[in-house]
Amino acid sequence: MVIYERTPHYYETDQMKIVHHSNYIRWFEEARVAYLDAVGMRFADQEATGIVCPVLTVDAKYIQMVRFGDTVEIETRLNLYNGLRYGFSYEVRNKATGKVCCTGTSTHCFLDPQGNPIKVKRDYLPMHEVLTKYLAEDQK
User: Fold this and answer.
1) Which of 40, 92, 106, 122 has its CA 20 to 30 A from that of 18?
2) CATH number at residue 61
3) pTM, rounded to two decimals
């Protein structure tokens, strides 16, 4: 589990200074990249080795508004890894109140630059070992 902290930018809000719902999906991506960095799997390094991880699914449940000036913490966990795909869960909390504002998930697959599936366990054993380790830790 990794916690990513963020303060909304003014341009992410509507006229009432409430964060627009589409921005949470962007925040999930930022938190996912921070998670991968924290576990030693820099996203840029993955792409440099020829691994691309497109989004297969993304889901968000909006619970409470986030406003301009709030700070949020996004708790990110690896919740799926099977060698062909991985998935993450997200919980966006207001840092000051601790209240959950949004929850969500995303799933991604592993492809080579030509769009062919990659079997991580076979082709990238060190990456497989890291993902297996953190999947077990994040499911505790």
Assistant:
1) 106
2) 3.10.129.10
3) 0.93
